[in-house]
Write a structure and sequence with these properties.
Layout: H1 8-16, H2 22-36, E1 42-45, H3 47-63, H4 66-69, E2 79-83, H5 111-118, E3 122-127, E4 139-140, E5 144-145, H6 161-169, E6 174-179, H7 185-191, E7 194-197, E8 218-223, H8 226-236, E9 263-266, H9 278-293, E10 297-300, H10 307-333, H11 344-353, H12 358-381, E11 386-390, H13 406-413, H14 420-430, H15 432-437, H16 442-447, E12 451-458, E13 464-470, H17 476-488
Parallel strand pairs: 2-3, 2-6, 9-10, 9-11
Antiparallel strand pairs: 1-3, 4-5, 6-8, 7-8, 7-12, 11-13, 12-13
InterPro entries: Amidase, Amidase_dom, AS_sf
Enzyme class: hydrolase
Domain Amidase: 24-480
Amino acid sequence: MTLFNHDSLYYSEKVKQKEVSVTELVERALHNIEHYDDMNAVIHIQKDQALNIAKDMDKKLESLSSENIKDLPPFFGVPILVKDLGQEEAGIPATNGSKLFKDYIPKSSSNFVKQLIENGFVIVGRTNVPEFGFKMITDSKLYGNSYSPFGKPLTSGGSSGGAAAALKRGLVPASSGSDGGGSIRIPASLNGLIGLKPTRGRTTSGPGSYRQWQGASIDFFLTKSVRETYELLKVMDNRPIASPYLPPNLNLNGLSKPKKRLKIAYSYESPIGSEVNQSAIDSLNDAVEKLKKLGHIVVEDNVPVDGQQAIHSYFTMNMVETAAMFKDMEKALGREIKKDDVELISYGMYNAGLRVPGWMYTQSLNYWDTLSDLYHSFLDDNNYDFYLTPTMNGPTKDIDAFSPSKESIEKLQNIENLSDEETSYIFEEVFKVSSMYSPYTWTINLTGQPAISLPMYETKDGLPIGSMFIARKGEEDRLLELAYELEESGFIKSNIHETK
């Protein structure tokens, strides 16, 4: 058996105990990617570099005393796949899922990747993403669709779809992701993994830029255990003083269960008013019953969100940030970006973003603050510890089920001829089906709160649906206490899925 059944800490412990070498783990990961990636999860392999690093680590390990081995980084020797979106490594292709970047090789590494390496990970390759991370599925024209470990044509989700598929299949013990609208939590839910979106600013971006989608997006990981999630949060908690986002300190003095019984609000209701599927209702009912068994108080209640205004403010940010990104790219290229340089949705985002006036963009970002007040007041005024919803409005589906309508595609193709009013609302139409299936995750990217998707439920067909717990800013530690209790009670199922 070559697949990685355990969490990443398990394999680092085995390396430090000299029961397995780093080289053996890296060779095993490379073998798995070559022979078992029928999901199109991995789009780049860095075999020679990874093996050279592994051999150097093995030499270092041999030279250390047992006492000094204890001082090695917590993830020493663990092979990891890195999401091919923003997480750049010097000298390694970084495409962002776009043919515009297919030949781009960064000269320096991102701060997040530097931290990965400092904490002992060995990067063995990069995972598939939708172009620029805009979708809840992974279907870039550059690399093709990424499918679920549960079988084609089911989607692995997005935008960290390749990362989730690789981890759930057991190709590697660790996989990084990022979350700008649910892009860790969505694939975690669809693949049966743990997916934490930390508080805004908890992990570092940059260098030189700390406002990933104005703070809506953050880098972290998909994981298989709560202890692994806890340790990753502990070592990746990095808040440079230059960053505009400085979240509260965490209490990470050891993983433990909640010290008191919790009061948790829960809601089935979609923030955008879409119909909730029975499977999502069943998943939430199951989570509520499990919480009751543990003695927690659960109350059906709902945050009164204006979902239409919230989603419009989200897409307004997407459009303007895309326009700014493309303008930087045009400067680097020395020419204008043409429609055939990128996928249709990306070009539409660019064109629409150029038309958003400054006052409208400011209004959208101001609404994020209003939304944050709303969520925190809801928790505080009712003495709720957490807010619980389904992560997704159902299990994974065929990837083609999320395609935009023919009418919205035609509008994108002729976006230059649309009015400014039409372009400002076009992406609510383009992503209508996706938004109805993932209505719960993205509001938390606007508020900056932490949220975690836990694999607590499977349909009669064996397909997972996550339960999402939302906390106040800075309370990732409390989320992990509850997650740990649920895990210890046998309520979390995050084991790898082997193709039969």
